[in-house]
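dude i think i finally got it to work??
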Amino acid sequence: MKQEWKPDELRATAAEIREAVMPKSITPEMVGGTLLGLVNAVGEVIEVLGEIPREHVKVKVRGYDGTGGVSGAGATVWLDVFHTKGYPAVSLPRQELTCNDEGVVEFEVPHGYRYAVFSQIAGLGASFQLVETAASDEREINLWNLPVGVKHLFLVVLLNDAIGRYRGVPMIADSYDGNIGWEDEETKAKWEWDADTEAGEYADDRYYYGILVSTADTSFVIGTNSKSEQRIPWCSNRDYGTLMPGIPAINNEGTDEEWADCQNRARADLDGNMNTAKILDYAHDPTAADFCADYVGCNDEQRWLPSGGQAYLMSLNNTAINSLMTEVNTANGDKGFILLPSLKPGSTNQWTHYEHWWTSTICDKYSPWVVGYDGGARIDDSCGTSDVRAVSAFHFEY
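look at this
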């Protein structure tokens, strides 16, 4: 049988239900209980955090000026600790640490957190920025500060037959042809520069790493196959419109003055390795960063998507970089390096072909910064496709 529709009675019933289930006011007892619960919960978290294992990190800093070793005593080590996978996301303020007379600093990081370190020695370039995950009881990291400039970078393997020990030290050279072997004792002596060389230790082998770009604030290496064969989206649609925790968005509001300031701030970002680690941890499908990180190379290599400032340095130094790339290609009889775009003859702002590179510097939730065909730093749509050039850092043991 059809029921009669009675809206007034239904409204009265709904009002009675709300009156029964909703408090008329928030009482002191309610507030006290809530706050007490929160305090107890926080106390439990703090108690647990105190038991979380930590990784004890020893960072040893040393310099190489092109002829011999330089002490790391008094060197500055910059430390960033971050965690983007869980909640809450953590990106602690950068810490400035000073090395002791042995060139060493030590600190601890809770397991599961990631950290980035690099060092500075007056008169030399900054070390590579290395990124690690705290997971072991202890770790030793060796940071090398190398000369400022654009150079060829090699690894020299020193062998001690008596104890069967290998160790590696960096070696730089201005010329590729004259420094890839040791056909005579004078040339070989240049490879055995290390003042810590022990009796019976000698240069046994050497490996070519790539082209070192070194400034007082950052250093990185361009490898022989550092460029993607095709253009790659910066991210998938799943990540489009998403900001990355711990990476500031450098954006402008449209005025010329603000735009210039944003460009300068993007070019000042030299934390490409750390940025890439945060992107890889957080994003679902970070295609440009994956291209860099998925490269299978040396076991002691960390490859990453360069920051806006690092990519900008590549564009500013393209003539010097291309000269060294050409040396290697000519000596090897192949095209191991893909040259950077160069300026057209007589031009100051136009490359020979259209090319721009993704970076790991964020503009906004839709766009990263790119280094464009005119050598500048500009914004592009992150759902589009751009060229990818990876850069690298290496661990050296001594």
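The mean pLDDT is 83.
im so relieved honestly
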